[in-house]
Design brief:
The protein has about 375 residues and is an alpha/beta fold. The chain folds into three domains: about 1-45, no CATH class; about 60-200, NAD(P)-binding Rossmann-like Domain (Rossmann fold, 3-Layer(aba) Sandwich), CATH 3.40.50; about 200-365, Lactate dehydrogenase/glycoside hydrolase, family 4, C-terminal (L-2-Hydroxyisocaproate Dehydrogenase, Chain A, domain 2, Alpha-Beta Complex), CATH 3.90.110. Helices cover about 45% and strands about 15% of the residues. It has 13 helices and 16 strands. The longest helix has 20 residues, at about 345-365. Bound molecules: nicotinamide-adenine-dinucleotide.
């Protein structure tokens, strides 16, 4: 008995990794106690494995793959929002994910309770949502579609691994070109279409609304307008259905601003469409607004809001559009994507949306999808 107490104490007192090293270096055959110590040390070194096994079905655990500018900003915004009880960050460069997770965890005193850790793809296990931001990003002057071949290869490798680890999770694709990669993820995963969504033009819609809000001098929450189509150069601003506080945009006037002109519209849309290029040219990446946009989608899912968001999803028969992932306003809740909204489109808007579809289909064809 005294021996047992002594052994327990010595286990407690000696740091487990050092004890393991001692056993390993002794060169003697391992006794049962050594093996117990070995397995204990393994568990101590891999806390995520233990946590995963205990997760309930109503998990608010979020896995983020790709701990670059976008992935780590999503983790940061998720922490501030208090949405997740657990966030696991992984990256092909493990040191980067570890450093980002550590840096974020050091701020945990200032946010709602959350456990944040670095892991690897198998640690996506038990996650409600796996957010993928891994892959190449645009260099200044490059379009999103130019990333297609490189990032399709990243996804060919990644998606089967994610599926192995977290077959019950929703997949939220953020890497670009997001519509192409969302389609590829649907096809590679074999998951029901509703469980694979892309961040799509949620960010572009926010850019559109914020520029309109500034120009019209009204709160952004009173501006209702969508950007649909590709998250990229062929995206389509829906001017015809845009409203400010229930007033159609074309008839909106206010004492605090001049009416919107054709030139204003042109300028606003250019600044929406070229926003990423402008920011990337100056600071190398976009991260803050996309971080918030993705957290808005996570929130709609985890709180089962049935919120209307312009996420990218596989369309079948929407205004005659078939078998392509692209953004249109759609319901988003705990089960992923619901119905796409049959918005009224002006003729030229629908034609532009269909051009966007054809562009994406051409890229998918080149990638053999
Ligand atoms: N959808 C949107 O609205 C939106 C907005 C901004 C950026 N993006 C896209 O998000 C992606 C990430 O952008 P970023 O600025 O964070 O780039 P980044 O270079 O800072 O980060 C990308 C990370 O992915 C990692 N990575 C690469 N291959 C991987 C793999 N196989 N497994 C795990 N990790 C891997 C890299 O090591 C890197 O840390 C880009 O494709 C970018 O174009 C999308």
């Amino acid at each position: 008995m005294a021996d047992l107490v002594k052994r327990k104490r010595s286990l407690k007192d000696v740091p487990k990794k050092r004890a393991l090293d001692k056993v390993a270096l002794s060169g003697k055959p391992w006794c049962p106690a050594c093996w117990r110590l070995f397995f204990l040390a393994l568990l101590v070194q891999q806390p995520m494995t233990l946590i995963n096994a205990a997760l309930p079905a109503s998990s608010t655990r979020i896995a983020i793959i790709g701990a670059g500018a976008v992935g780590s900003t999503i983790a940061y915004a998720t922490m501030l929002n208090g949405l997740a009880h657990e966030i696991v960050l992984s990256d092909v460069v493990a040191r980067k994910a570890e450093a980002e997770a550590k840096d974020l965890m050091h701020g945990s005193m200032f946010v709602p309770s959350v456990n944040i850790a670095a892991g690897s793809v198998p640690d996506c296990k038990g996650s409600a949502i796996v957010v993928i931001t891994a892959g190449a990003k645009q260099n200044p002057g490059q379009t999103r579609l130019e990333l297609a071949a490189t990032n399709a290869n990243v996804f060919r490798e990644l998606i089967p691994q994610v599926l192995d680890a977290a077959p019950g999770a929703l997949l939220l694709i953020v890497s670009n070109p997001v519509d192409v990669l969302t389609y590829i993820s649907v096809k590679l995963s074999g998951l029901p279409w509703a469980r694979v969504l892309g961040s799509g033009t949620v960010l572009d819609t926010s850019r559109f609304r914020s520029l309109l809000s500034r120009r019209l001098n009204v709160a952004v929450s009173n501006v209702h307008a969508y950007v649909v189509g590709e998250h990229g150069d062929s995206e389509v601003p829906l001017w015809s259905s845009a409203q400010v506080a229930n007033v159609p945009l074309q008839s909106f006037s206010s004492p605090s601003c001049l009416p919107l002109t054709e030139l204003d519209r042109h300028e606003i849309f250019h600044n929406v469409r070229d926003a990423a290029a402008q920011v990337i040219a100056a600071k190398g990446a976009t991260n803050w607004a996309v971080g918030l946009a993705v957290v808005r989608i996570l929130e709609a899912i985890l709180r089962d809001e049935q919120a209307i968001l312009t996420v990218s999803s596989l369309l079948s028969g929407y205004h005659g559009i078939e078998d392509v992932c692209i953004s249109v306003p759609s319901l988003v809740g705990r089960n992923g994507i619901g119905a796409a909204l049959p918005l009224p489109y002006a003729e030229e808007e629908l034609a532009a949306l269909k051009r966007s579809v054809e562009l994406l289909r051409g890229v998918l064809k080149q990638l053999a999808f």
